[in-house]
Amino acid sequence: MATAALAAALVVTPVFAHEGHVHKVLGTVSSIDGNHVVVKTTEGKSVTVMLDGKTEITRGKEKLDAAALKVGQRVSIDAMQEKDMMMAHAIKLANAAPATAPTK
């Protein structure tokens, strides 16, 4: 049983690193530096994703520009592994938290 699990892990790991297919990055934006966005994933890993002029950023059906990205924001990113970097094709921003009513 342990051998089968180890074999499965060895098969899955190289497949993730291959170029040419979409990877899903889910998490919270931890930093933004120009066209680089670092996301802390739901597994606790940091993933750097590059943006370019083709990256589509949306919240719901609304199309946004890169200025809409903020540290602390929850995101879902579709990215492709290109050479030694992840290139974002689509970034979906979580809906804004509802405003809280002022307390009296």
Question: How does this model look, in words?
Answer:
With 104 residues, the protein is an alpha+beta fold. It has one domain (2-93): Beta Barrel (OB fold (Dihydrolipoamide Acetyltransferase, E2P)), CATH 2.40.50.320. 15% of the residues lie in helices and 46% in strands. It is built from one helix and seven strands. It has one helix at residues 2-17, and strands at 22-33, 36-41, 46-50, 56-59, 62-64, 74-82, 85-93. The chain has a five-stranded mixed β-barrel. Strand 2 (36-41) and strand 3 form a beta hairpin. Residues 1-17 have low confidence and may be disordered.
Which properties best describe this structure?
single chain, alpha+beta, 15% helix, 1 helix, 46% strand, 7 strands, globular, OB fold (Dihydrolipoamide Acetyltransferase, E2P), disordered N terminus, 104 residues, five-stranded mixed barrel
Q: What is the fold's blueprint, element by element?
A:
Layout (H helix, E strand, L loop, with lengths): L1 H16 L4 E12 L2 E6 L4 E5 L5 E4 L2 E3 L9 E9 L2 E9 L11
Parallel strand pairs: 3-7, 4-7
Antiparallel strand pairs: 1-2, 1-6, 2-3, 4-5, 6-7
Quick rundown:
This protein has 104 residues and is α+β, with helices and mostly antiparallel strands.
| Overall geometric form | globular
Content of β-strand: over 45%
Major beta-sheet overview? 5 strands, mixed, barrel
Number of helices: 1
Span between termini = 61 Å
Radius of gyration: 17 Å
- Average pLDDT number: 80
The CATH H-level superfamily is Copper binding periplasmic protein CusF
The low-confidence runs, each spanning 5 or more residues with pLDDT under 50, are: 1-17
What string, H for helix and E for strand, traces the elements in order?
HEEEEEEE
Report the top-level CATH class: Mainly Beta
Looking at the structure, the CATH topology is OB fold (Dihydrolipoamide Acetyltransferase, E2P)
| Strand order, sheet with most strands | 1-2-3-7-6
How many beta strands in the DSSP annotation?
7
CATH architecture: Beta Barrel
Considering DSSP H and I runs of 4 or more, what fraction of the residues is helical?
A: 10-25%
Helix-strand category: alpha+beta
Question: What is the total domain count?
Answer: 1
